[in-house]
Structures are given as C-alpha cells and as structure tokens.
Amino acid sequence: MGISKTDLFTEEQNELALVAKAFAHPARVAIIEHLIQANQCINSDLVEELGLAQATISQHLKELKSVGLIAGTVEGTSMCYCINAEVWNKVKSRLHGLMNSYDPAKCC
Fold first, then answer.
1. What does the alpha-carbon distance between residue 3 and residue 92 come to, in Å, rounded to a whole number?
2. CB–CB of 70/33 below 8 Å?
3. 10 Å Cβ neighbour count for 48?
C-alpha cells in the first residue's frame, strides 16, 4: 500500500480531504442529516432511527467527531451529539469556494 504524501498539499486541502472521507459512508451522511433535523440527538435515538447496531453507530460517531463535524456532551449515562457549528461553517465555506471556482464556460 502506498504512502500518502500529505506534506505535498496545503493544510486546507488535507483538512477538506479528511472531512470528505468522513462523509464517505452513507450511515454517516444519515447521522448528519438526523442531527441537522433534530438539532441534537442522544446516541440511542440514532440506533432506533437508523436501525444499526449500537457499536456501529458509535464507530461512525467517532469518525465524525474525530474531524470535528459533531460535538458530544455527557448527559447522565448517555451522550448527546450535535453539529459543531464552527467546523460546519468552515467546511461549508471551503466547499462553497471550491464549487464556485469552477467556470464551465472555460472548460473544453
């Protein structure tokens, strides 16, 4: 397996790639959609909503949390998750800038 040469790319490019990787599983997209709709969610709600095992949900939450897209707080014996607005807005701005930088009139 090849070695990733992340040092060849900017910090912003590497960060955006990590976030894109976090979105690369449909369960994570479903979790994000559910958190946006609910504005917060306790882990067991996600198990009921998505029909996945608790361990599976936990692993996906860990991936989303590791890139900062979601934040979690302890509420009694449960975790409450929500979108991390600061990171969300940063990613949204970068994606918006990237998508808007393409001009189809200048392409072959």
1. 29
2. no
3. 8
Say what the pTM is: 0.84
Nearest-angstrom CA–CA distance, 104 and 96: 16
Angle at CA of residue 17, ends 11 and 18, nearest 5°: 90
Q: What is the mean pLDDT of the chain?
A: 89
DSSP 13-59: HHHHHHHHHHTSSHHHHHHHHHHHHHSSEEHHHHHHHH---HHHHHH
Closest Cα partner for 59 from 75, 46, 77?
46
Tokens representing 27 are 């369960």
CB 40 within 8 A of CB 61: no
